Automatic annotation (TrEMBL):
Keywords per UniProt: Cytoplasm, Oxidoreductase
Low complexity bias spans: 194-204
Single GO BP term: cellular response to L-leucine
Family matches, as SUPFAM superfamilies: AhpD-like
Name the record gives this protein: SESN2 protein
Subcellular localization: Cytoplasm
Organism: Atlantisia rogersi (Inaccessible Island rail)
Family: Belongs to the sestrin family.
Length: 298
């Protein structure tokens, strides 16, 4: 768990040798930012990817565009908070203040201008159930008025939202540890489902996550047992069909969090940027249910 990633040995991240391209990228990051954050250190294991990512970040956050710099960072905070990624929230709170953002906005979303608060609904949908976005959501934001968005502003805002939703997944998936000046290692635990009776994760050891995984395995074995029993009662069920049923049950059990299972309570410094925190992912292709209409674009 020491170093930039909880999953990748520090020696592997710091290895030297023929990776001159990687070293050059890290040096550029140090010169432009004054430091090299843990995301850059880990992503530097894939220099070409880091190069593309770095250019994208620069265009989104620092180059000319319709949105002021402080609002770009606040939108990043809103997006990361939807996924309870306190690592990114903390990172962009610092950036927000550095570019002259109003500290009062950091008390919570309710203190931000109405124009930014109006992004909350589409931020929520894009983060958890993007297939529910309709043209009406876009029209509502573009509707003329004191707090309306221009089309150029909205395009940049939506790109920022989706960029940081994705980056939160990278932070969780690579076990990115907080920098020393952040919250001491407790901030970037991915939210994993747990029952109301089990404690929320309160440290970085992953103990609660391990218990959750064991419960999932037990549930999976119980479902497998029921399937095997049903096979004895049915005639003409082939082995291939049973295998496909098992795979479906396994996927639903391990990859789709049931909607009635509560997640851990977000930290207050993240929750304050979120409206409707109970809203989360819900599978839209469950068997026996009518799939909602989806908004399709080219």
């Amino acid at each position: 768990g020491r170093g930039p990633s909880a999953f990748i040995p520090l020696g592997e991240i710091l290895q030297e040798g023929a990776e001159s391209g990687r070293q050059q990228l890290l040096l550029e990051a140090l010169v432009s930012e004054g430091r090299v954050d843990n995301i850059t250190m880990v992503m530097g294991l894939h220099p070409q990817y880091l190069s593309s990512f770095w250019k994208t970040q620069c265009l989104l956050l620092r180059m000319d565009g319709p949105l002021p710099y402080h609002k770009r960072h606040y939108i990043a905070i809103m997006a990361a908070a939807r996924h309870q990624c306190s690592y990114l929230v903390g990172l962009h709170v610092g950036e927000f203040l550095q570019v002259g953002g109003n500290p009062a906005w950091l008390q919570g979303l309710h203190c931000a201008p109405r124009k930014l608060r109006n992004l909350s609904e589409i931020n929520k949908l894009l983060a958890h159930r993007p297939w529910l976005v309709t043209k009406e959501h876009i029209e509502a934001l573009l509707k003329p008025g004191e707090d309306s968005w221009s089309l150029a502003e909205l395009v940049q805002a939506l790109v920022l939202l989706t960029h940081y939703h994705s980056l939160a997944s990278f932070v969780f998936g690579c076990g990115i540890n907080p920098e020393e000046e952040q919250d001491g290692g407790r901030g970037c635990q991915p939210p994993s489902p747990h029952s109301d009776s089990s404690p929320a994760p309160d440290d970085s050891t992953g103990g609660c996550g391990g218990r959750d995984a064991m419960r999932e395995v037990e549930m999976l074995l119980e479902r497998l047992k029921l399937l095997q029993e049903s096979q004895l009662e049915e005639e003409g069920v082939t082995q291939e069909e049973m295998a496909s049923r098992f795979e479906l049950e396994k996927t639903e059990s391990l990859l789709v969090a049931p909607s009635d299972v509560a997640g851990p309570s977000p930290q207050s410094n993240v929750l304050c940027f979120v409206e409707d925190p109970e809203f989360g992912y819900k599978d839209f292709t469950r068997r026996g249910e009518q799939a909602p209409p989806t908004f399709r674009a080219q």
